[in-house]
Here is the input.
Amino acid sequence: MKKFILTGLVSGMILSSLSPNILAANVHSGSHPSASQIQNATHHFSYDVIGKFPLESLIIQLPQGLTINDVEIVMSNGNKINSQTSISDNKAIVNLGENIKPNTRIYISLRGVKTNGKPHTWQYRLSGKFAGINQEIPLGLTQVRTYY
Here is the structure.
């Protein structure tokens, strides 16, 4: 039994050491206006990009019952990122015009949000592609609440 537990611990440590050390931390989220019946709202959230590799693109999985028109990304210094957004199949892929360096906060605005008009906690799954990594890396989940 001890051998089995020890093997599991060692395997877990080895696998965790192979991760690319990329994280994103949700700082704040919201909706403007926050009333669920109002269409063409803006959902926004911020993220801190943490790790060793620059962020090249951001993938936002859109929840069922919600559509958007565009995504805008602004750096913490107020500069807008010149990006191109492709929206299809409940997914928005944002190809960034410039890589976002680690230890940078970005502000993401989903513009032209249309919902089913019911109050809801909308959950967005985020992933990203990073310089030097040929794989999409999950970044986490953010929530935006709407009310009556």
Observations:
- The chain has one domain: 22-146.
- Residues 73 and 79 are 9 Å apart (CA to CA).
- The mean pLDDT is 81.
